[in-house]
User: Fold this.
Amino acid sequence: MQNNPTNALILVVEDVHEIREGMEKLLTADGYRVALARDERDALDNGRLKHPDLILVSLAGSPTDVSLAATRIREGIQPGQDVPVVIFCGGGIGEGDEVAIGHNVHLTRPDNFNQLRRMLARLLDQNLAPVCN
Assistant:
């Protein structure tokens, strides 16, 4: 278990029920608050109410279609906000890789949960860091 001092809210958008529940258990065990959505519409409804700190998207479809859906989710939830988006991708990139595909939008194919943990912690740390003037 990893210590998570931020108590950040992660919106998990996953179309497979068992994976959605598994992600919730793993992320909750790490100290994150978790909101779940089964598709783009559900993500928009849940996200507008809960204002997530990070959106984690894993949906069936081509990487391009899933990336577009993830971008629509972020813009529909918090227009103009820089909420990090992490998209799980089964193909298109190598296992263990992470690729930035847009402004604070990342495509990943982690080879284990620890790799995903580090990525989430890094993105949330950058997103939640206080702004100093």
In short: The first helix runs from residue 17 to 29. Residues 58 and 88 are 5 Å apart (CA to CA). The chain has one domain: 9-128.
